[in-house]
Amino acid sequence: MTMTSLQRSQLAAAFAAVTLVAGAGGYYLATSREGGPAIASTEDGRKPLYYYDPMVPREHYDSPNSLSSMGMKTIPKYADGGDGAGAVPGVTVDPAAMQSLGIRLATATRGNLTGALDVTGAIDFNQRDVAIIQARAMGFVQRVYRLAPGDVIREGAPIADLLVPEWGGAQDEYQAVLKTGDPALIAAARQRLRLVGIPGGSPRGRGMTTVRSPIGGVIQTLDARAGVTLAAGQTLAQVNGLGTVWLNAAVPEIRVADVRVGQTASAELAGFPGERFTGRVIAVLPTAQADSRTLTVRVELANRDGRLRPGMFATVHLGDAPRTALLIPSEAVIRTGKRTLVMLALAKGRYRPAEVRTGAEAGGRTEILAGLNEGEKIVASGQFLLDSEASLTGIAARPIAGDAK
Question: pLDDT tens-digit profile of 244-281?
Fold first, then answer.
């Protein structure tokens, strides 16, 4: 059985129609699967390898209109992260996606770094201004004046009346020598009074003497009691002066390099609003507090009117005069534990990590000692996503000039 020419023509037309429908269906399925056309070249001629979401960089897509498993619009990924052969490596982000990724830029600029450091502290006694009042010879406490620990006394205030038998004999001897009129003997007898411990070498009293405080201040301890027998060298009282006080400030160990002995410090106390007390740093104690990771910086303050009382809390202002430095926002700094990085913003939406060396920090800004130049742009927000992508793709950080690698 043979086919006529008309039948052959009809069969060919039917095959052509089936082929056309199949081709159209395949195109529709291919484009509808990812929501758009296959990977195409961008306006500047570069062809992306794939599209991805920086939050889940392991997921790759063929369509620019794809949504990642996080529900975010994807961005293109290029072969070298740049414009072609020899380009500077970096992570490329579509400018239109910067806002959705929360990327915000800042510029490294020169400005004044105040060096301000505000910490808390507490007033304490000046432990160098202490008087220990002791019995200079064996005797008895005849009377104790009405005092108690915590009392504030003036210089020369009486503490106790003592009877020292040994002093009576020395004083009688001095009176006898005094009648001779011999200057040498009188001087020797007065010296003996001093050696046996009579305060001031007084020839009067017949063994009785009043022990007085050599300084004004607060009585810390009072061991004198009426009728008590005293041994030579026994402590009667301890007095802490109030002419100056110490302000012990807790400074974080990462900022202790900003403090030096001799620099000026000021303090504000809640009890004296609007008033500042000025002093100087006299010591940075060598031991850090393990629980708070702070070191104690000791400031000496004048306390002529006695208003500053140990135990009072204060806000302490430390820091040097302002100086010029290269500054960036502190939030832009990425500290990994081994090195410090920032994310550079390069041309045409490319980003690359750069290693930096930081200095002091104040007012939300960090000093850059090396690794950045004035005017370079860095990422101040969203830099951790970019740094994660750079690490996954093996993009090396720009080293600090002059550092050995």
Answer: 999 999 999 888 887 889 999 999 999 899 899 999 99
Q: What fold, for 117-126+243-318?
A: Elongation Factor Tu (Ef-tu); domain 3 (2.40.30)
Phi, psi of 399 (to 5 degrees): -75, 165
Distance CA 337, CA 389 (A): 19
pLDDT digits (tens, 9 = 90+) for 219-239: 999 999 998 998 988 999 999
Q: How far is 365 from 405, CA to CA, in rounded Å?
A: 28
User: Bridge partners of 117?
Assistant: 318
Low-confidence ranges of the chain (pLDDT < 70): 1-46, 55, 78-89, 94-96, 115, 197, 199-206, 320-322, 389, 392-394, 402-405
CA–CA gap between residue 147 and residue 239 (Å, rounded): 12
- Report the Cα–Cα distance between both ends of the chain, in Å, rounded: 86
Separation between Cα atoms, residue 271 and residue 294, nearest integer Å: 25
Q: List the one residue out of 70, 98, 107, 59 whose CA is nearest residue 382.
A: 98
Two structure tokens written together for 164: 């020292």
**Residue 192, C-beta contacts closer than 8 angstroms, at least 6 positions apart:** 170, 173, 174
CATH architecture of 91-113+323-392: Beta Barrel (2.40)
- With a CB cutoff of 8 Å and minimum separation 6, the contacts of 51 are 39, 60, 61, 62, 63, 64, 66, 74, 75, 76, 77
Of the CA atoms within 13 Å of residue 121, those in its CB half-sphere come to: 33
Residue range 133-236, CATH number: 2.40.50.100
**Whole-angstrom Cα distance, residue 283 to residue 128?**
13
Cα→Cα distances 228→140, 143, 178, 224, 236, Å? 6, 10, 33, 7, 11
